[in-house]
Design a protein that fits this description.
alpha+beta, 4-stranded antiparallel sheet, single chain
Length: about 250
Amino acid sequence: MSKKIAAIVLIYICTAAAWFILGSTILYRTNIQDDKLKDAVGQLWGTAQVQKAPSVFYETKLAVENKRIESGKTVSEIQTQTITNYIPLKSSKIDAALFLQHRKKGLLWYPTYIIKFSALYTVSNDTPEPRDIFLEFTFPSEGAVYDDFRFIIGGKKLENIETSKGTIKQTIKLAPGQKETVEIAYQSQGLDQWWYEFGENVSQVRDFLLTMNTDFKEIDFPQNSISPTQRIPTKDGWELKWQYSD
């Protein structure tokens, strides 16, 4: 009897060890291929997206006198420099809807998503002179697909828009104190993360509201991000708000 029990225990231990080795091998090979698989998913579906706020600025000219010594004499030369003056957006009203759609590659599932983005920005000329205000909008990811794209300034939809390195640059002529609205919208798709950044050369954010709706409950806020100021549970996910006055 004891021999039979010992044989059963031995068979059990050998079987468990075999399954453990097999599982470890599969896990190791899967983790080794994770980066390659994620790159493949990114090429097929899209990568993580980082949408930056538009840059708004106007340019001024400054005459600078440069002096140099030639043959023992002082020679003056006037050069014109272009100075870029960044200005904050007057207001930002943003709606982002995330729809989770997992994709399987190999033995792993990856969190891919569809993003519906729309934003209404207000640009103003707070200087005492008429200005050509430049607005630069950069798409969140190179090589991604942007469906149903709209770019509307003052209620007029722009057609035949040209991009340079994923950036659109438009000129808005504004009188002193004049305001204009800019509407931007698109649908795209990405992987893992979606970010909205205030952008570079920004020292102040005014009248800001970002509303995000999700069709999933589990959300992770990565390091260096800002938690929402309001969370409202919905049937399938969340309504999240980031709101700041100044």
